[in-house]
Amino acid sequence: MNILAIDSSNLVMGVAVVSESRVLGELMTNVKKNHSVRLMPAIAQLMKDVGLTPGDLDRIAVAKGPGSYTGLRIGVSTAKTMAWTLRKELVGVSSLEVVAQNGRYFDGYIAPFFDARRGQVFSGLYTYRDGKIVTVTHDRLVLMKNWLPELASLGKPVLFLSNDLAKWREDLSALPKAVFGGGPQHIPRASELARLGREKDPVPDVHHFLPTYLRLAEAEAKWLARQEQ
Amino acid sequence: MSIDLDRKTMILAIETSCDETAAAVVENGTIVRSNIVASQMDIHKRFGGVVPEVASRHHVEQITVVCEEAIRESGIGWEELDAVAVTQGPGLIGALLVGVNCAKALAYAHGIPLVPVHHITGHIYANRLVTELQFPLIALVVSGGHTELVYMKEHGNYHVVGTTRDDAAGEAFDKVARTLGLPYPGGPEIDRLARRGNTAIDFPRAWLEEGSLDFSFSGLKSAVINYIHNERQRGREVNRADAAASFQASVSEVLVKKTIAAAERYSARQVLVAGGVSANRQIREEMALAAESAGLPLVIPPLKYCTDNAAMIAAAGTIGFLKGRRADLSLNGSASLSIEDF
Ligand SMILES: [Zn+2]
Question: CB of B330 within 8 A of CB of A37?
């Protein structure tokens, strides 16, 4: 099975092509540049480099969020259009779960997170068990000051993986058993996304596949609040 | 530049610049094989206007659905397509990105050329779905986002000779409607109400400096809003129908006179009107009368081609395609974009 993996959900932009369990190629950048400009050329370049044409693909895996709303839409629009028009399978994978893969072999909990401004983070809880990373609690949008006591109450070491670690390092250090990943461990890898995409079930309906924003549009939230009054 | 208008073409176009998710297939630039529009109007109604983030989210929901419908209804296969055309801008950037990335994925997946289209050229070319264009021509594009007079001496050659210095005409309609307590979108509501009113209130007409073909609607908008507030403050009931009729008369008079003046200055052989506001009954009627007495052939497309749609993008994209205009896979959406570069 040939899988194309696409992640443009956060600062990192990654594309990978995996055939069976062999990683044929991967492109990744971790710089603030426009995903909309660079994603499709990266896909075309990588496919060419590994000698595949669009028709050779069997499945497309996309990082479905949480993340930047715009980044998510770029990746998801690209992935669902390709899957639909080429009649290929589509798999959506949590963007946090992709980062969590970098905590393999860690004894304790793994808490990947993305900064979500205003004291909030997108985070989830994972652990390494029986040779793979499993989900402990679902991804959520949470205030870091509420998330930390929850993690402390687990009583086990927590490995923090985040490209936004610098912003939160001081707050996290207050946690007695905090462990910080290093360098590349904070970076989501599209090849891991492809591997997860191979294990998971494809979506039943490509047309209705949507990003997982984990947050309402501000206007919608305000409108709902007014209705409740 | 000479282009081969007789060349057979089949173009799929995608439009997501505002709150309509649209796809269409057009043959030879004029024959509409399919024209699918998923409107979000009902969704944005409760917010009193288009919310960009909400619009962008809905585009992701609809984009492949409208494309599939457009292809299915056209009865063509992917191998018959000559190009994918897409609105590059101007518009809401988050909304544009959905269409642009979808179009790029289609172009890559099927190995077909990608043609970027300026949204306003789409509105102008909506007219070519109705009748052949005669050059030189003057086109008035008037909508919620635009008020522009464009001079064209030949196909695919655009020169802006007048534009709004503040609000678009449609924007003024929406804001006045809101002050009058009318639901969004305000244009059709004001049009309806104005039919029952008299032009009893003397609202200003912004002609700007002598000979200018530019527009300005913010002064008029403020005058109407001030009038309504003043009346209410004095405890007088506002005659909403009269206010609507008087406001609309001012907008219509300025649009019509400047369009005819532009047509005469540039010796136009045809006058085109397009964009959502051209659905307005009074503007249509007065433009028709003025064009007739000036001896100018006037074209206004039917309503389905006035509001945002992808058939018009395909029509304009066909000309771009014939001119050899192509984008590579790094094409990006652009909130503001000059029509003169197209
Ligand atoms: Zn428009």
Answer: yes
